[in-house]
Request: fold
Amino acid sequence: MSETTVRPLALVTGASSGIGLELAVQFAEHGFDLIVAAEDAELEGAARRLRELGAAVSPVRADLTRREDVEKLVAAVRGAGRPLDAAALNAGVGVGGRFVETDLEAELGLVTLNCAATVHLAKRIAQDMVARDEGRILFTSSVASQAPQPFQAVYGASKAFVQSFALALREELAGTAVTITTLLPGPTDTEFFDRADLTDTRLGASDKKDDPAQVAEQGFAGLMKGEATVFAGSLTSKAMGRMSALTPDTAAAKTMKPVAAPGSADT
Reply:
């Protein structure tokens, strides 16, 4: 039997850059082969980097807002010829700005990717893992899941959905050998703020964002330990995340409002 057939296999979505790519790096550095998915052309460069770490890598270009592309990715996983040992469901987008002014199609697309596609993919993966009674699933949530997010209203709600869904699934699967972990990063130095149109906010303009490699390392470690929730990043980010979970929603929303307001970077 060749070495590649005995290495564990992991799936990472949103793997072309940012936290997703760094999660894939963690898997590769810890002896996993990979199926990596993203919709953009950066995926090929990410795959090359991962192969340099010794992993066998299968890139799948997929737009997970399309159900047929989710099923295409599921088919790639099931057709790999070996079981899926771990999955990091990381793909997601944000939309910033005043809700009455933001683009409806962009926000409906956000809900489809962050919520519906996550449920769709998790359903297929969890069913297969439970049938085998083995596996690990990591959901990339956010500290934004812990409190209402003015000027990121739909994004914050989508991450609250992911967090609630993942923790409920974890409880359902208690007693099986399938573990569910959520990763809650704070503001991280990725393309997220550019893509979400948040660069003119105090939140987006801050030079104190966390390193995505650090976030991914902590998330991977938590996944391997079977932890329920991983607040990731710097000590400050971790503390702020835990504090936001304890703060009443109305107070938390008032705290978030000035840092996420459009144009707040100039104030």
Remarks:
- The chain has eleven helices and seven strands.
- The CA atoms of residues 5 and 81 lie 9 Å apart.
